[in-house]
Amino acid sequence: MKYVEVLNNVLITEISKYCKLIKKNNLYWTKCPFHKENTASFCINEEKAFYYCFGCGESGNVIKFIQKINNLTYNQSLQQLSEVYNIKIKHTDISDIQTVMQDLCSYYQNNLSEDILKYFTNRNISTEMIQLFKLGYAIDGVSYLQKKGYAMNIINKTGISSYNSQDRFRDRLIFPILNRRSEIVGFAGRVLSNQEPKYLNSIESDLFHKSYCIYNEWQLVYGLPVIIVEGYIDVIKLTQYGFKNIVASMGTALTYTQLMLILQYTKKIYIMFDGDDAGKNAIKKNINSILEALQSHIEIFICNIQEKDPDDILNQYGEKKIYEYLNLSISLIDWIKQEYTKNLYSSPHSETQYIQTIDQLLQSINSPILRNSYRKYLIVPVSLNNTPQRKWHEKNNKETLELKILLFCIYFNLLEDHFELICNLSFSDKYEDIRLYLISNVYKSNILQEVRYKYDFLNVALSEYREIIYLNKNASQYLMDLINSYQNIKKIQILIPKL
Ligand SMILES: [Zn+2]
Predict the structure, then answer these.
(1) What is the CATH number of the domain that holds 106?
(2) How many CA atoms lie within 13 A of 354 on its CB side?
(3) Last residue of a domain, one of 208, 236, 263
(4) CB proximity list for 213: less than 8 A, separation 6 or greater
(5) Does any domain span residue 108?
(6) Among 116, 250, 390, 491, whose CB has the most other CB atoms within 10 angstroms?
(7) Residue after which a domain boundary falls, among 180, 208, 236
């Protein structure tokens, strides 16, 4: 048996010498020994023989754990373990894998030829982004590392060598994958031709675990919403256009562990997957992981884009359209309702089926309180009488009209078209604040996003009136009608003095 296999088997034994482990599903959990915490976010995957802390991002195999907890070097840790478990190790087994990964990354970066750079230019990716994201090109990383004197067992640890000891990324663009400490843990390679598969990732290793990775984690900042997209190029392009906190899931799978990782940074997530069928189905495919990660203080919004992907949107319309999609995004619960009620009245059995499907789906939610409120929202009002359309038309008092006028200005960008009219209105209290804010910032490009951040209740209002707003084909006329009704109401109010 190789020493790696022996050590993979003793991960749980070693960690339990230091921590009290609790087994849940297939994972072991404990409070992290590397940072202070009250709830356990340190998890150990026995099958994959590695640990990961959702709180501080520490991860690795048993050698790394012993190194870290006893404050040793990698070599000392390996030495110590090999004595405990009576393993013979060769000198060539010892190498700092991070140095090798850095070396490999620079090699890929240095391979960028005129032709490759032209490809980036054609895709409208700036030189700055090529450098920031350390983009590269693979010729043969394996023979490069061999020439530098690395033994094959070290090269195999990088996750780049194929079964016949060649670079599996040969002739592919390279997107290095960095962890939150900006260490290179893996690579993704994209073909330039029409070959399949379009994307390849590093082989799973001590360093690289696909479902515990998100692309661009190293640039995440705490407290801002996170936008999850599908493609690496989408991340790069959105960053280039000034968006912050953009990550990509690795492919269309969005795992529970990836979401848990993202939720360490934010309470608000926007999912902006591709506009094609694969992208649309991806959310449905991942709905259980999404619900499993959901907690009551977390908001998840789904952006239903019509174009191919965010990159395509930016190329066609610029960042303004991205903001529009963010504004029109719908909350997860509304998305579920929309998706699963599509065939609700197609047959006499469909209602029962719907209830069963939803019930099953909601099993994934961990919090009983949240599960219950989701159930109430999704199941109880499955009759048409409660549709938002109805609500929208029923309520037309002064305050609702004020809100509706603002929503139409905000979400349809109609403010400029009806500027003079809006300027001459006068609203009450909080709506007046927004009206003034809007008119004084009318030409500011990010105004919509700003207003929505600033006045959080607008998000709630939007989800309530979403269908009307979203489906409205003649928004401008509708806004005029709203303004007319509003002015009439005001006239009536003046005629009838308050007692
Ligand atoms: Zn930790």
Answers:
(1) 3.90.980.10
(2) 23
(3) 208
(4) 177, 179, 185, 186, 250, 258
(5) yes
(6) 250
(7) 208
Q: Are residues 149 and 50 in the same domain?
A: no
Ligand 1 midpoint to CA 36 (Å): 7
**294 and 227 in a common domain:** yes
Between the CA of 40 and the centroid of ligand 1 the distance, in Å, is 9
Beta strands at 226-229 and 246-248: parallel, antiparallel or unpaired: parallel
CA of 30 to the centre of ligand 1 (A): 10
* Residue at 364 is within a domain: no
Residue 105 located in a structural domain: yes
| 83 lies in some domain | yes
Same domain (yes/no): 157, 141: yes
Phi, psi of 458 (to 5 degrees): -65, -35
* Ligand 1 center to 143 CA (angstroms): 37
- What is the token pair recorded at 303? 């952006």
- The domain total for the chain is 4
Distance 344 CA to ligand 1 centre (A): 46
Q: Give the pTM.
A: 0.70
Distance 144 CA to ligand 1 centre (A): 36
Please report the beta strands in 291-398, taking only residues with DSSP state E, as ranges in sequence order: 299-302, 330-331
Domain region containing 67: 3-91
Residue 263 CA to ligand 1 centre (angstroms): 15
Encode 205-241: b = buried (16+ Cβ within 10 Å), e = exposed: bbbbbbbbbbbbbebbeeeebbbbbbbbbbbbbbbbe
- Residue 200 near residue 188, CB atoms below 8 Å: yes
Q: What is the pLDDT along the chain (499 residues), one digit of tens a residue?
A: 577 788 888 999 999 999 999 998 889 999 999 999 998 999 999 988 899 998 888 999 999 999 999 998 888 888 889 888 888 876 555 567 888 999 999 999 999 999 999 999 999 999 999 999 999 999 999 999 999 988 888 898 899 998 888 999 999 999 999 998 899 999 999 999 888 889 999 998 878 888 889 999 999 999 899 999 999 999 999 999 999 999 999 876 899 989 999 998 999 999 999 998 888 889 999 999 999 999 888 999 999 999 999 999 999 999 999 998 998 899 999 899 888 887 776 666 777 788 889 989 999 998 888 998 898 888 865 544 444 444 545 556 788 888 888 888 877 778 888 888 888 888 888 889 888 888 888 777 677 677 777 777 777 777 677 666 666 667 788 888 888 888 877 666 555 554 4
